[in-house]
Automatic annotation (TrEMBL):
GO terms for cellular component: RQC complex. Pfam families: Tcf25. This is Transcription factor 25 (basic helix-loop-helix). The keyword Transmembrane does not apply. InterPro entries: TCF25/Rqc1, TPR-like_helical_dom_sf. Keywords: Signal. Residues 1-30 form the signal peptide.
Length: 427
């Protein structure tokens, strides 16, 4: 984001946002060092939003093209068309549209809104704010896929800082992955240690396995003493065994995606057998599938499978000896994972990891999929309401026929197609 601007340039940007973009930001509340902001839509922008909803109902992607030709910085149209381009494998255009949406928001920032202070909040219950979360999330995913995991991690931190208590996009489910991708092991361990007491991060499969993996990688560094090496290795062993005992259903799918055949002792043992996966509560299956689908590539590094095999065997010995930790884990699995909160479902939908989306409950998968607002909160704060029934002819954008824009938009769309072919807080 371009934050190095002069006062005159800032004034021009504010004018552009108010006159052309139709989006502004206001300070709602400032208390105890925390500042709560919200984006706002002016009346002209609201009218464009109504046309956008008509375009969604028309189910014709060309209508988004037409809408953007007249309103090139309309956020939800940019989000929706970006998804269309991505599905058509036009990744470059999909990224460009998200970056344009990001710029639109940047132009509307309040003078005291800061991306780096960690004290600015945006309420996800307000529809005007939700688009900012989604744009940041999609930009973060594009960055990671382009080989920029360090930058992606910073965006992850930013999204988490906007509402760390509610975490509406459940950024904690990807934070560990990005830390491991860019080798920020101490960052992950520090968050885990500071948040474990009040957020029970060890009850998330991704944190349970990834923190163990972080300690292992730290033990492999060459600039540490033999004593420290032994301590880190021992810590990583215990944490990995605990993760395997707490989440036994993760092992076989992980080995399968890593194309590793388990030995007979492991595959024939009831603890890691089919019952460990079939008997998982729905929410736990969703979390485990998400972790395995996203992070299996991290386990393909040299030496990791030998370390995993060693601790699987040690874990089985603890199981066979009826380690008290085993019963504790069984009780937690039965009590805590019956149904996942809405933000976890939302994260799985946006991540598009097939192993996880296949586990989503019917009440989620049967809902109309809206890329510009997946699984909106049930307690949304609505600041303006769409008219009861917009004229059906508006779907055809009849006014645009006179300008010839619809034909150009359709041709543009065709060319594109052708070129592309608190439940965890329990004690």
């Amino acid at each position: 984001l371009n934050i190095h601007i002069t006062a005159r340039e800032f004034g021009l940007i504010v004018s552009l946002s108010l006159l052309l973009l139709g989006i502004s930001m206001s300070l709602v509340e400032s208390k105890d060092g925390i500042q709560c902001f919200t984006f706002e839509h002016n009346r002209d922008y609201q009218q464009v939003q109504f046309k956008f909803l008509d375009a969604v109902e028309s189910m014709d992607p060309n209508n988004f093209v037409v809408l953007l030709q007249l309103n090139p910085y309309h956020i939800d149209s940019l989000l929706q068309l970006s998804d269309v381009c991505r599905i058509q494998e036009d990744q470059e255009t999909a990224r460009d549209l998200i970056e344009r949406a990001l710029y639109s928001f940047e132009c509307a920032f309040h003078p005291v809104f800061s991306l780096t202070s960690g004290t600015c909040r945006l309420d996800y219950c307000r529809p005007e704010n939700r688009a900012f979360y989604l744009v940041l999330f999609k930009h973060m995913i594009f960055l990671e896929k382009r080989g920029c995991p360090r930058t992606a991690l910073e965006y992850c931190k930013l999204i988490l800082s906007l509402d760390p208590d509610n975490d509406p996009l459940c950024m904690l489910l990807i934070f560990d992955f990005l830390c491991l991708r860019c080798r920020e092991y101490t960052t992950l361990i520090r968050l885990y240690e500071e948040w474990e007491v009040h957020r029970n991060l060890s009850q998330l499969p991704n944190f349970s396995f990834s923190v163990a993996l972080s300690y292992y990688h730290l033990s492999q560094q060459e600039d540490i003493s033999p004593v420290e090496n032994q301590q880190l290795k021992q810590k990583s062993n215990v944490l990995l065994q605990n993760a395997l005992i707490m989440f036994p259903g993760a092992l076989m799918p992980l080995l399968d995606l890593c194309t590793v055949q388990p030995d007979a002792v492991v595959s024939s043992h009831a603890f890691f057998g089919p019952s460990s996966q079939i008997g998982q509560p729905p929410a736990l299956l969703e979390l485990v599938s998400l972790y395995v689908g996203r992070c299996h590539s991290l386990w393909k590094e040299a030496g990791l499978m030998l370390w995993l095999e060693e601790n699987v065997r040690k874990g089985l010995k603890r199981v066979d000896s009826q380690d008290p930790y085993l019963e504790d884990c069984q009780n937690k699995r039965k009590q805590r994972y019956q149904s996942a909160p809405r933000n976890i479902h939302r994260h799985v939908l946006m991540s598009e990891i097939k192993e996880a989306t296949a586990t989503l409950p019917l009440e989620v998968t049967t809902q109309p999929g809206m890329g510009f607002d997946p699984l909106p909160p049930l307690d949304s704060i609505v600041s303006y309401i769409r008219p009861e029934r917009y004229d059906l002819n508006a779907l055809k954008f009849s006014a645009l026929y006179d300008t010839g824009l619809l034909m150009k938009g359709t041709q543009y769309g065709n060319r594109r197609a052708q070129s592309s072919a608190g439940w965890l807080n329990e004690d």
